[in-house]
Amino acid sequence: MSDSFSIRSFNSISFYLHHADDPALPASERARVFFSYARADDDPNYDDLDKSFLRRLTHDLAMAGLAVWWDRLSLPARSLAFTQEIENAIRACDRFVLIAGTHAAASEYVLAELNFALSQCKPITTLLRAGEYDVIPPMIDKVHAIDSRPTRDYAAALVDVIANLRGDAPVGALRGVAPLPPFFVPRNAPFAAARTALCADAITPTVISAPSRATAVYGFGGVGKSTLAAALAHDCQIRRTFRDGVIWLSVGQTPTPSALQAAIGATEFDDDRAKYGNEQEGRIALAKVLHDKAALIVLDDVWDASIVAHFPIEETACRLLVTTRSAGLARKIHGADIALSMLSAAEGAALIAKRAGGSADDPLYRSIATELGGHTLAIALAAAQLENHHADDAADLLRLLTKRE
Q1: Using one digit for the tens of pLDDT, what is the confidence trace for 259-311?
Q2: How confident is the model at residue 207 (pLDDT cuts 50, 70, 90)?
Q3: Which residue in 66, 310, 321, 388 has a CA-CA distance of 20 to 30 Å to 200?
Q4: Backbone angles phi, psi at 97, to 5 degrees
Q5: What pLDDT is stored for residue 234 in this prediction?
């Protein structure tokens, strides 16, 4: 290794750095890049700049002021498991770079690294090094891949890579969004439908009609509407789409519209609070704040459809996610309607197993969920009874539930 390069540690994770006499950024502020790749897609002479693509790329990105985590150089000799070292490095990085190739496409390690990076909402940059574009994993095949194959001029590809890694890749902050409950069980079908509706114009833009301004999730009280909304708020695709944040507002039966407007404009975006003296003034002020924003506004527990009109997101990249008990109210709101039904026996059993232990395939768990009508809150309370040993076992709890006077 040249004297102008060294390995530096950030939060106990080692990155490869170039020491410039007058660096543009202090080392602590350099963007940190993680390389995910298959060794078989690179030349085995990984110390040779003329043969190893990874070595040359590491060198040139470091020269450009980026800090690089490459396992050939950066993997610390500690006693932690290899997978734990990898997870720590991905958490510490600012950008995740997938060097896609025919061997990477078949690598379980590469797929595990990519899935973990996605779960951490890391910005993904894809470099196609070998093969065709179909070697790129399907979960990121919509992300533009930089052609870095040997048939392309390396210098031109490097310019594209550096520009990409230096560009903005914001992930929207969570503003007032509660953590997911510890015993959260995904509701895959309604979740996917709601996410598609919220991101539809970002995924498939059209000039034929304006995108839906709101998505309404409706269902009985206690069925899990707020939990589904929270799961959407935490989702990485949602947060990448809404780069200016996900803002949670609890509405309820007696809301004060100007206070809710101020909670966005003044509290979250530093507008003058005096502009929100009443709902008419607040609407004008909020329209100016939101006109260039891409934010998701969650209106939780809405009882009156007219509240939506106080949030002027027309002709912006902002969207509304509304939760309500009323199907009729949901239909009054322009946009997609997502019905959230009771838990199926399988979903209810999964919730019980997650909280009380045991198997989600336990027929007693399924019977308990069915006996409780698939009501999410009731099933959660039943699971708590088992967890806290207020019932001897699942069979005892089922007997208590089915006991007739």
Answers
A1: 999 999 999 999 999 999 999 999 999 999 999 999 999 999 999 999 999 99
A2: very low
A3: 310
A4: -110, 115
A5: 93
